[in-house]
């Protein structure tokens, strides 16, 4: 095993343990500050910058993410979506619509250098939980969930994200 492989395996083990901890003691999401806290918790053993915004503009596979110069307005907009979610998303259909918008915008924001996907999935899980739903996005377990998640987030396709949430949201 090479050093990068060992580092990747180590990160996977440490972050998986932290995510399991969050299943028992979730950090509830009321603002972007809570999203930063989730990232900090998951990656505290791996990155010294865990829970802090990235300091450079990034892109992935030709898709650019929100420029760091726009983080303040991005944070304000995401906070408004989260506030609206807590106030208005009460039916399953409203949850599907609202969670799709939040995930789409959080993915475009892409606030961290690494760990955005795992953080996004935890944010969605706790938002769904706050409304009495299980909303576990587990792309590694289900190919259809993986494809809907990737198509929805990579291409900003709200219809795919709505299909994703229609598939995974379960009343508890």
TrEMBL record:
Record's keyword annotation contains Transferase: yes
InterPro entries named in the record: Fido, Fido-like_dom_sf
Domain Fido: 30-167
Superkingdom of origin organism: Bacteria
Nucleotide-binding keyword on record: yes
Family annotation (Pfam families): Fic
EC number per UniProt: 2.7.7.108
Keywords (A to Z) from UniProt: ATP-binding, Nucleotide-binding, Nucleotidyltransferase, Transferase
A GO molecular-function annotation: AMPylase activity
Catalytic activity, reaction form: L-tyrosyl-[protein] + ATP = O-(5'-adenylyl)-L-tyrosyl-[protein] + diphosphate; L-threonyl-[protein] + ATP = 3-O-(5'-adenylyl)-L-threonyl-[protein] + diphosphate
GO biological process: regulation of cell division
Listed PROSITE patterns: FIDO (PS51459)
Enzyme class per UniProt: transferase
Listed name of the protein: protein adenylyltransferase
Organism of provenance: Candidatus Streptococcus faecavium
């Amino acid at each position: 095993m090479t050093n990068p492989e060992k580092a990747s395996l180590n990160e996977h083990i440490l972050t998986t343990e932290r995510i399991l901890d969050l299943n028992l003691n979730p950090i509830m999401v009321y603002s972007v500050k809570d999203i930063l806290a989730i990232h900090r918790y998951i990656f505290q053993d791996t990155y010294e910058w865990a829970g802090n915004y990235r300091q450079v503009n990034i892109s992935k596979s030709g898709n650019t993410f929100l420029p760091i110069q726009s983080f303040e307005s991005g944070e304000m907009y995401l906070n408004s979506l989260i506030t609206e979610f807590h106030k208005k998303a009460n039916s399953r259909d409203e949850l599907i619509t609202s969670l799709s918008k939040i995930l789409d915008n959080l993915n475009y924001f892409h606030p961290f250098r690494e760990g955005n996907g795992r953080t996004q999935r935890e944010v969605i899980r706790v938002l769904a939980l706050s409304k009495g739903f299980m909303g576990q996005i587990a792309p590694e377990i289900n190919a259809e969930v993986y494809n809907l998640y990737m198509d929805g987030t990579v291409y900003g396709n709200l219809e795919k994200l709505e299909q994703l949430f229609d598939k995974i949201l379960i009343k508890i």
